[in-house]
Amino acid sequence: MINTVEINTADGYQLVASEFKPSHNNGRVVIINGATGVLRKYYQAYAEFLCARGFTIITYDYRGIGDSKQASVNAKPASMMHWGQLDMDAVLTWTQACYPAMKISGVGHSIGGQLLGITPNNNRYESFLNIAAQQIHWKNWERKDQPLSMLFFYCVLPLFYSANKGLPKWVLGAEYLPQQVIRDWSRFGRKPFYTDEQGNELHDGYHQYKGNMRFYAMADDNRFAPPSCVKALQRHFKNAASDMVIIDPKQVGMKSIDHFGFFKRSMTESVWQDTSDWLLISS
User: Fold this and answer.
1) SS (H, E, C) 28-94
2) Is the pLDDT of residue 38 over 90?
3) Rounded to the nearest 5 degrees, what angle is found at the Cα of 115, between the Cα atoms of 196 and 183?
4) Which of 60, 29, 32, 26 is nearest to 46 (CA)?
5) Residue 101's pLDDT band (boundaries 50, 70, 90)?
6) Domain 2-140+198-281 carries which CATH code?
7) pTM exceeding 0.90
8) Would you state the torsion angle of the CA atoms of residues 194, 57, 68, 149, taken in this order, to the nearest 10 degrees?
9) Most buried in the list 101, 129, 153, 280, measured by CB within 10 Å?
10) DSSP string over 148-196
11) Contact 47, 32 (CB under 8 A)
12) What pLDDT was estimated at residue 120?
């Protein structure tokens, strides 16, 4: 059963979420934290797969994305910082309140894994599964790809936010990204560690997480999250019990996976099953 629910953040934003309820629950809830500009419906196939195996699943749209557009007059604007500090916190708090007796795990796709480090009290997650979640400092790419990475963070993104605009859909093929979202994105890509707008490094939240973590990197994800960038994010969570798995598309019967293929219905089921098994035993 799939329900549409509204989750209110501490500052008055209304996030729209989908709640997948299994016929027989296994005592575990999984929150799927999406990638930049990706709607929650993109994760439905994977959510249904886990739900069929007894997991209760929560997917949602960050503020300013998809259905999450309603806010009080005092609500803060959409930004990556607010996605992590307010939206991810609100969804986790709501899930705890609704399922107090169940263990909670997270799945983070791309930015959804990165922002765990700025989510308040992130140890409320028993375990966290990262899919193509990466540390995006431009130097983490292979040397041959660093010029393109620099161009994106130093030129392309600033070009749009300096003109008081967000990032149009046509640039990356995702949803329109509000101005402050791309400002944060540009700053994250230019620094070796995540910083706030004042330049303060945000070490504490990354270092405080002590749960189980697994990082999946796609061998063919050269543009957005090459294994070198995924490994760099893993190093930030230095106190977590973590490991990293690199998936070669050919070894799992796929022509390609890249940055977005993992959650498509065409993904090899055995890989999804591996993640289901890990989520079950890691929490």
Assistant:
1) EEEEEECCCCCCHHHHHHHHHHHHCCCCEEEEECCCCCCCCCEECCCCCCCCHHHHHHHHHHHHHHH
2) yes
3) 45
4) 32
5) very high
6) 3.40.50.1820
7) yes
8) 30
9) 129
10) HHHHIIIIIHHHHHTTT--B-HHHHSS--B-HHHHHHHHHHHHSSS-B-
11) yes
12) 96
Rounded CA-CA distance 136/132 in Å is 11
Q: Inform me whether the pLDDT recorded for 100 exceeds 90.
A: yes
Query: What's the first-to-final CA gap in the chain, in angstroms?
Result: 24
Q: What residues contact residue 200 under an 8 Å CB cut-off, 6+ apart?
A: none
DSSP 228: H
Quote the CA–CA distance of 184 and 85 in Å, as a whole number: 13
Q: What would the pLDDT profile of 244-255 be if each residue is shown by its tens digit?
A: 999 999 999 999
Judge whether residue 172 has pLDDT over 90: no
Residues in the chain: 283
Which one, of 195, 1, 169, 252, lies nearest residue 81 by Cα? 195
